[in-house]
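I have been asked to look over a protein record a colleague put together. Alongside the sequence sits a line of tokens, each denoting a local backbone shape. Please read both lines and tell me whether the tokens look consistent with the sequence. Take the sequence as given and treat only the tokens as open to question. I have pasted the whole thing underneath without changing anything:
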Amino acid sequence: MGGGGQQTEPAEPGSGKASGVYTWEEVQKHCSRKDQWLVVNRKVYNITQWAKRHPGGSRIISHYAGEDATEAFSAFHPDLKFVQKFLKPLLVGELAVTEPSQDGGKNAAIIKDFESLRAQVEKEGLFKAKPLFFCLHLGHILLLEALAWLMVTYWGTSWTMTLLCALMLTISQSQAGWLQHDFGHLSVFKKSRWNHLVHKFVIGHLKGASANWWNHRHFQHHAKPNIMKKDPDVNMLAVFVLGKTQPVEYGIKKIKHMPYNHQHKYFFLVGPPLLIPIYFHMQIMNTMITRRDWVDLAWSLSYYFRYFYCYSPLYGFLGSFALMMFVRFLESHWFVWVTQMNHIPMEIEYEKNQDWLTMQVPKNAETSQMRIHLLFIVFFFSLFPMMPRHNYHLVVPRVRAMCEKHGVPYEIKSLWRGMADVVSSLKTSGELWLDAYLHK
């Protein structure tokens, strides 16, 4: 059934022939697990079977089933012409001429302005990486790793030397975490294959994690930030309740897996200390084994082989394991506080089908001190995921101006205020849960 007054039969998936003309209402019906359509640049595609083979994972592309995915498509793919080759066989039609280019509550003016901004910064070369920046970044990580080992090798394993070693390894591990983010988003090399290869080296050999696990999990966050049931970063496995909607839902249903009205207190015990050394580690290993991702597993095991080969002669196996867990304990605190200030205190809701700018910016606060202390501006990773981070500061004033023009909230916090907001937000959500649990 076509839109715009035309009656047409949809093309067979894989035919590559656009025989259908559809309305948004018709496209939106194809949003189930076994029937998925999406729209890119007004073209309608049936991705039901392709989603399983999608390099970024089936979930991220499925999150846009029944929706316009044009902005996300541009944000995540460095070579749009190349990707079009994969889309062509999936084409089933196009939007009727009477239909707007955007769906739902998306703002056409914002989409147009953001598209112009993206074209302008691309023309200015702000999507081109500076090799020296990333070489130095990788170099200082390798240097810290080497110095940490040499220090305890030649000066002994006293408590002082061990603590200094742990501090250096924590810094190198944290910085490797940010660096793998750059390669994972294909923002360093022109060729995707080189980004993928170095990404596996950094996250696998330097950190003992999995590139595919990170890609499939993290891209979902960028595609649908802070959207319940779509962003895995706000899936707290019932340990915490977040935002204003989930606590009330849990309270009404009398769900009490934890004493949520005290979650702002036990967060300090189960959040920062355990995320990386326990939860992430278990999830990564389980993912690699259950999905039979032997390549990533080999990269990950190379880290553990290197680490224990270097440190077991100095501390023994158990001592080396304790040192590794202590480093991950410290790194986890660093990671959680930096990232969660852009998750927990921000709006966390169900899908609202918003345009890219409106969806991304209010879900991420710019923390001014991060630029100095961490070389890391969190929300520009979401707004321009493929832009090298050394160019973010050049785009900040333009994004602020655009947000001011269209009335999109743009929040700037100090580092300490961002951390305090994490705790206060957890407390507020816990109180909402308790009120609903007792009175609704």
Observations:
- DSSP finds 18 helices and seven strands in the chain.
